[in-house]
Amino acid sequence: MSPRESAVEGEGRNVKHHRYEVERKAELGKTSPLWAGPGQGLVLAGYRRDHEKVDPPYDFPAYRGTILRHPKRPLAPIPDALGEVTGPLLGEDRVGEADFDLTVGLGGEPQGQKMVLHGRVTDGDGRPIRGTLVEIWQANAAGRYWHAWDNHPAPLDPHFEGVGRCLTDDEGRYRFITIKPGSYPWGNHYNAWRPAHIHLSLFGRAFAQRLVTQMYFPGDPMFDHDPIFNSVREPEDRARLISTFDWEATTPEWALGYRFDVVLRGREATPFEEVKS
Asked: Does the annotation mark 175 as catalytic?
């Protein structure tokens, strides 16, 4: 590269950086503590987001299933190929209009407490993640999943399969109508019961971009006894897995409301079930 080309490239970087500062200042506002003034860029607050310390470890002995499942050798990163990044895509036409409502479509009303689950999906700066596919699956009100391997002696509900999906809107919002799930025994240790929970899966624009987590309900007495919940080691990180009761989303004579926001990155990131590269 010639000196002239180098100077032009450097000038271009300065212009892009200045434009970024202007756009970021407009986004943050003059009173934001993250803005130090022209030419000073951003003042980053203490940034703690080492996912190996936040997400559950692969091997957590109290959770017996990880003893055999966890990798025994260091992980070898595999770069994404072009096909994994560009497709196949999750087209909007794959999601039905009623897929967000787990209480309809099976010929009758399911048993249990009806509830509205809603929230936002954002990045670490609070920007909405638009058009991402959110899927949920859960046990019914008696703590029974609709699949052949669940032999818990609780009744199946013929009007509740326990699966749903939707796309986030332009503000990153999602919403489901469902039934509050029950706790269930799971055989991990003596008298082992799972807290009531709902599984969430979030896809990016390709099948290789997927995150999975669990949402719990406030005040569950099983928290102290559940090794899956406690595999998230820090109390403040475990708290991000607990939904909040939402009076505004509660509908009179019909359903309770719960809010669960998902943050993908940053200091307030939601713990996920797999360490991300």
From this structure: no
